[in-house]
Amino acid sequence: MKNKKIFLLLFVFLALANCVGFSSQGVFGTGVSIAIDPRTIGTQIDDSIMQKNLSAKLLAKDKKYFLSVKSKVLDGRTFITGKVDTIEEKFQITKIAWEIKGTRSVKNDLKIKEKFNFKQSAKDVLITSQLRAAMISSKDIKAVNYNIDTYKKKIYIYGIAQNDNERTKVINEAKEILDVEDVIASIFLVEDLRIIKN
Questions:
Q1: Inter-CA distances, 71 with 32, 76, 129, 184, Å
Q2: Residue 130 and residue 102: Cα distance in Å, rounded?
Q3: Nearest 5°: phi and psi at 102?
Q4: Residue 6 pLDDT > 80
Q5: Domains parsed from the chain with CATH numbers
Q6: Does the pLDDT at position 46 exceed 80?
């Protein structure tokens, strides 16, 4: 009987470890590292499930959203970026995000599609790369805790800062990059989270 419980416990642990992994790769790129992430494993799993549910609902709505819409869930807060064809689609995606169980808030930064501009897209990739490099090289910033998306010289930063100094430093690094027009930061402090690791 005792061996069965140990085997079951080991099986559940291995199953959860394989689901979550040691670091998660998000739609935005580098995910939040579990070793550094201040959220509890339970909150991380809840956020991951919410994000997968949102992705599944969007995919069921229209397959084109698989590539054109990106989402990230942090502590029950949903962030959506990408491009859609019409304003009605933007509103529908916001409604779908609110319907996901556990959603505390939705920030929809979807843009309406325009004609493709290679020069603008290349500039946006360069801006994102420059910010990522600056964050990695800074010893005061835990770069793995942030996701960055750039659209038309506007940087969108989502993540969790250990303290207010780190949040300010991330925003200042973004503002110092050449040609950046605006920085939209949704950076939570560890103390702002509902439940944190001890």
A1: 14, 12, 20, 15
A2: 35
A3: 100, -5
A4: no
A5: 21-192 (3.30.1340.30)
A6: yes
Most confident of 12-21, 75-84, 114-123: 75-84
The CA-atom distances, in angstroms, between 75 and each of 16, 33, 150, 155, 180 are 19, 15, 23, 21, 28
21 sits in the region (left: phi over 0; alpha: psi -120 to 50; else beta) called left
Beta carbons of 187 and 156 less than 8 angstroms apart: no
Q: What is the pLDDT of residues 113-140, one digit of tens each?
A: 877 788 988 999 999 999 999 999 999 9
Collect all residues with Cβ–Cβ distance below 8 Å to 4 and sequence separation of at least 6: none
The amino acid at residue 143 is A
Distance CA 12, CA 17 (A): 8
CA pseudo-torsion sign 107, 151, 65, 26: negative
DSSP H helical segments within the chain, as ranges?
Answer: 2-20, 41-61, 65-68, 87-99, 118-137, 164-175
